[in-house]
Amino acid sequence: MPAAEGVEDAGVVVLDWAWTCNGAPWLDLLLFAAGLEPGSAQVVASAGDERNALLMLTARLAAGGPFGTGTLPGARLYLLDENGKIKSEQVIFYAVPD
Question: How far is CA 14 from CA 19, 48, 94, in A?
Answer without folding.
Answer: 12, 28, 9
